Amino acid sequence: MTLAAPTSVLGAASPARGLECRGCGARFPLAAQHACYECFGPLEVWYDAEALATVTREQIEAGPQNIWRYAGLLPAGQDAAARVTLDPGFTPLVRADHLAAELGITGKLWVKDDSANPTHSFKDRVVSVALTAAKALGFTRFACASTGNLANSVAAHAARAGAPSIVFIPYDLELGKVITTAVYGGDLVAIEGSYDDVNRLCSELVETDDFEDTAFVNVNVRPFYAEGSKTLGYEVAEQLGWRIPAQVVIPMASGELLTKVDKAFEELVAAGLAVAPQGWRVFGAQSAGCNPIATALHGGGTEIVPVKPTGIAKSLNIGDPAAGIYALESVRRTGGWMDYVNDDEIRDGIRLLARTTGIFAETAGGVTTAVTSKLVASGKLDPTLETVIYNTGEGLKTIDAVAGQVGPTYQVKPSLRAAREVGLIQ
Ligand SMILES: *Cc1c(COP(=O)(O)O)cnc(C)c1O
Ligand SMILES: [Zn+2]
């Protein structure tokens, strides 16, 4: 006799079994809930460990060239027909020898270039998982509180799915984030406040009757959203031949991505899917204009003191980071470090990455590149070990950051004489 598979609201093949409080460990059914009823701590998806252990490299490698090859390790999306997705993922892992030489890194250096996703940031990963879970839970309208990239991604996913969307942003975002959201045709609400104000308003709206049908990817369905970030860990390990790199450098806004890459590495090792010959150390990058997590680490504390963000790295400008304390925990447990850089260093980081790899990153990528440089200089990052730095977004969306710094080398009339006059020819 065979036992029937346990049925899940997320589909019979989902390995997810419930939600678990990151604070007190209390467990809840799979639902659109993000805070613990006991202690208000954030909730995380918990899985049937046996179900995860059945996933094999062969199954993954036979899957599609996108995040859904890891569906066996995700809470939703096992049934391809039920997905809400732009099929993101399997972005390039680029060997960065010239950048390594400039930074004084002698170990292998790679850039995981997630600007290659459909809406040009890593947010497509988290949105695909969150909205696929949201649809299974019965939601019909899609929403988010965004620092920019999330807005792009939610609006585009809703357009592809033929569903209504309403996304909330701070009113002072870069034009390259506003237009690339509005073009998809959903509702776009610019709030006269910071991201933290936007997020608080969304937490209030989601409780109202008018928003009963609405999934806010990073509010009421946040536990599912967060799981999508794991694919940035799985992919890097698979692309390195199922080996976990010794060091990773990751930009932080809420700190969620950093904790989930760490979690992905843990899961791969636990399931016997990847090896970690040198362990792994996780490094976090922030801007000087918004550095609450790095500041807590430097001060030796375990609590995050919220800040009012400033500076050009707007996609990372979360002053009260929801996963900050867990990011601290990941970095301390793995023996990594965090640092931050100012706006001029961010611009230099964007140009350094572009000049040495051919990758034009948004300000967040400038933060990560410049922090990597700082971590080498301070001796926190071991320059002899294999290192992966994560570029999470596209430079064309934040073009103003470097617009005043780069431009034509020459402007010349179309004649040989003019070319000679400026020194292009003898
Ligand atoms: C959202 C975002 C991040 C960080 O995400 P968290 O998970 O909130 O830390 C990093 N880079 C870019 C470009 C982003 O848009
Ligand atoms: Zn709790």
What does this structure look like?
This protein has 426 residues and is α/β, with parallel strands linked by helices. It has 2 domains: 197 residues, Rossmann fold (3-Layer(aba) Sandwich), CATH 3.40.50.1100; 103 residues, Rossmann fold (3-Layer(aba) Sandwich), CATH 3.40.50.1100. It has 16 helices and 13 strands. The strands form 3 sheets. Strands 4-5-13-10-11-12 form a 6-stranded mixed sheet, sandwiched between helices. Strands 8-7-6-9 form a 4-stranded parallel sheet. Helix 11 crosses helix 12. The longest helix is centred in the middle third of the chain and has 15 residues. Zinc ion binds next to loops.
CATH topology (level 3) name of the largest domain: Rossmann fold
The chain-level mean pLDDT equals 96
Low-confidence stretches: 1-5
- Give me the number of helical elements: 16
Strand content: 5-15%
Number-wise, the strands total 13
Radius of gyration: 22 Å
CATH architecture of the largest domain: 3-Layer(aba) Sandwich
Task: Characterize the quaternary organization of these chains.
Answer: single chain
Order of helices and strands: EEEHHEHEHEHEHEHEHHEHEHHEHHEHH
The largest sheet, given as strand count, sense and whether it forms a barrel, is: 6 strands, mixed
Strand order of the largest sheet: 4-5-13-10-11-12
Topology:
Layout: E1 16-21, E2 27-28, E3 43-47, H1 49-53, H2 57-61, E4 93-95, H3 97-103, E5 109-113, H4 123-136, E6 141-145, H5 149-161, E7 165-170, H6 175-182, E8 187-191, H7 195-205, E9 214-216, H8 222-228, H9 231-239, E10 247-251, H10 256-270, E11 281-287, H11 292-298, H12 324-334, E12 338-341, H13 343-357, H14 363-377, E13 387-391, H15 400-403, H16 416-421
Parallel strand pairs: 5-13, 6-7, 6-9, 7-8, 10-11, 10-13, 11-12
Antiparallel strand pairs: 1-2, 1-3, 4-5
Helix pairs in contact: 3-13, 4-5, 4-8, 5-6, 9-10, 10-12, 11-12, 13-14
